[in-house]
Amino acid sequence: MSIANLWQSVGLPDEALKRLHLEGDPDRAVDSSFLLGTAAQVSVGLSGLSAARLHGLRTGLEQDVTVDARHAALAFRMSFMYFMLQTRILFDFVDTEAFYTTNVDVTRTLWDSIAGLYKTKDNSYVRIHTNFPQYEKTLSLLSSKYLNLSQPPSRYLEYSEHRRHQRCHPQEVQAALSQWDSVEFETEAANRGMCATAMRFFEQWDRHPHSKALAGVPPVEIRKIGDAPKRVISPGKRPLEGIKALDLSRVLAGPACGRALAAHGADVLLVTSPNLPSLPNFDIETSLGKQDKGFGVQELAKLRPGIVCANLRAWGWNGPWEGRRGFDSLVQTATGFNYAEGEAYQIFQGEQNIDVRPRPFPMQAIDFAAGYLLVFGISAALCKTITEGGSWEVRVSLTAVGQWIRSLGRNLDGFSIGRPFPKAGEQEVEELLWIRALKHPAVLSLTPVREGGEDGIAALKLDAHDPVWIETS
Question: Using an 8 Å Cβ cutoff, are 71 and 455 in contact?
Fold first, then answer.
């Protein structure tokens, strides 16, 4: 779907599109064979333009929205590049680098030591995602069949302490997985509630029943779920000022959505649980502008007429995988992206007629696109509460967002003309920093976004704020 089709699909007026200005060359914004620069620029642009439309309904003022392709791509890579006053701490993020500059003591690796791709008996691969303590289920499955482990190692639930080395090493996991066929392991993992997927080619995924079930599903959907009077809302300094949002999501797409809502003025309260682990690297990244209160089971705000409910799933609402757990990296592997990206990179390197080594995107493109598309859908739904009334649900799935990214096409010269991500401290990053983090990529001409740290709101850990809404005038 083109940007115009996406805009029209949620019922927003065509004339507003002339106010969106996409600058720079998205094909050169990222070194990838997929049009990730376009995906970043379009999803950020739609989120900003829909917020501007909401502001226009509230105030009668129209404004322009400008998104630079490279800036949007940098925000997708990891917009949170903190700079400490004196000390810079190096963190690993896939095969790129990011520098944190916070005084909070956080985990130094973003990926668990055994997470990743492993070769299987059928000469394919599986990807296991073990960044949360559910990884013990993975080890239980492996140990029960092939590993000599009497019990899976325990693990800290609080990631704010540095992770200790697990007794199970990647070499052991590889030895175990070499005894499995990829789909066999994927199926068994899903049956046990684990996070793992087999690698597929595009052609294999297209034949899969779940792929067929999601054919034609757009990356963002809005559906009316109830009647309500038209919303009456007073003008605000920013598009979402006065809007209260409960963020009940986890890494990464949902919290990125909450961060962008906060940037446009919403009062966002991130709700988590002491029984869930924290991932400070991601939690800080996606908490800019938000309050945070960690607690157990709580009675959430009662639904009221006119509410907008946004839901995110990995695999969507239809098909045999609708209830499975998943993450961006798993969707990339299962749906064919990792194989296609690896094949294109090896051709670029002049390595042909050899086994393809799967290659992930250079950033969590599906997650971040999903987050910005959630903002787009939420702002569009809020517009509908003003113009039509009613209560609305917004739906976004990582798999449907992946379908959309694939539909944008390929740039097989992407590795030769696309720019790699800069190191922290390079001038390109320094020019985009705001306080301690990369500036928000959607620039609205009349209502500059609220950046993290403004008004003293920048949660550097979970349970940082009391569970109360911000007082507004």
Answer: no
Cα–Cα distances (Å) from 134 to 130, 156, 216, in that order, read: 7, 12, 33
Q: Which residue has the higher pLDDT, 144 or 50?
A: 50
Count the neighbouring beta carbons within 10 Å of the beta carbon of residue 124: 20
Can you tell me the distance from the alpha carbon of 80 to that of 110, in angstroms, rounded to the nearest whole number? 13
- Residue 70 has φ and ψ, to the nearest 5°, of -65, -40
Residue of 462, 446, 441, 466 whose CA lies nearest to 45: 441
Q: Tell me which of 87 and 428 has the higher pLDDT.
A: 428
**Element of type H or E holding 437:** strand 437-438
Distance (Å, whole) CA 429 – CA 452 = 17
Q: How confident is the model at residue 286 (pLDDT cuts 50, 70, 90)?
A: very low
On whether the pTM is more than 0.70, the answer is: yes
Q: Say if residues 214 and 316 touch (Cβ distance below 8 Å).
A: yes
Two tokens at 405? Answer: 């990214």
Sign of the CA dihedral 419, 423, 425, 429?
A: positive
Q: Nearest-CA neighbor of 268 among 259, 279, 256?
A: 259
Interhelix angle for 69-78 vs 36-59, to 10°? Answer: 100
381: number of Cβ within 10 Å: 25
pLDDT per residue as tens digits for the range 180-238: 999 999 998 888 778 889 999 999 999 999 999 999 999 999 989 888 899 988 888 89
* Residue 285 confidence (pLDDT): 43
CB atoms within 10 A of CB 372: 30
Rounded Cα gap, residues 134 and 104, in angstroms? 25
Average pLDDT of every residue of the chain: 78
d(CA 172, CA 384): 54
Closest CA to 379 of 33, 54, 135: 54
